Amino acid sequence: MRPEWHWESERYYLGRRMFIVISEPDMIRQVLVENFSNFSNRMASSLESKPVAKSVLFLRDTRWEEVRGVLTPAFSPEKLSEVTPLISQACDLLLTHLERYADSGAPFDIQR
C-alpha cells in the first residue's frame, strides 16, 4: 500500500523529468527511514564525470543501500548535536569574513 502524502513540497523540472523537493521534516523521515525500500535509488543523470559519478551522491541500488547502512549511524541525533556547535561556529566565522565584503561592495573571490 502506498503512503498518502499530505505535506507541502515543491516541484521543478530538469528537461522533461520532474523532481520533487521535500522540506517537511516528518516527510523526510518517512521517505528516508520508514519507507526507504520504496525510495532506494538516487537520481541518475549520466552527466557527471567518472570520479563524481562514483561518489555517495550518485550511488544506486545495493551499493547505495550498503553505504547508507554504514553512514546512517554517523548521523544519529546524538552525533549531530555534538557537531552542531562546530558548524555554527564555522558559519559565524564565514559570515564575519563575508560581512567585510558586503559592507564595502567590492568584488571578491568566493572560492578563496
Fold and architecture overview:
- 47% of the residues lie in helices and 11% in strands.
- It has 112 residues and is mainly α.
- The chain has a domain at 1-39.
- Strands 1-2 form a two-stranded antiparallel ribbon.
- A hairpin with a 2-residue loop joins β1 and β2 (17-22).
- The longest helix has 28 residues, at 77-104.
- It is extended.
- It starts with 8 loop residues before the first strand and ends in an 8-residue tail after the last helix.
Keywords for this entry:
two-stranded antiparallel ribbon; extended; Cyt_P450; single chain; mainly alpha; 112 residues
Describe the SSE topology.
Layout: E1 9-14, E2 17-22, H1 25-34, H2 50-53, H3 61-71, H4 77-104
Antiparallel strand pairs: 1-2
Q: How would you summarize what this structure contains?
A:
With 112 residues, this protein is mainly α. The protein has four helices and two strands, in the order ββαααα. The radius of gyration is 19 Å and the shape is extended.
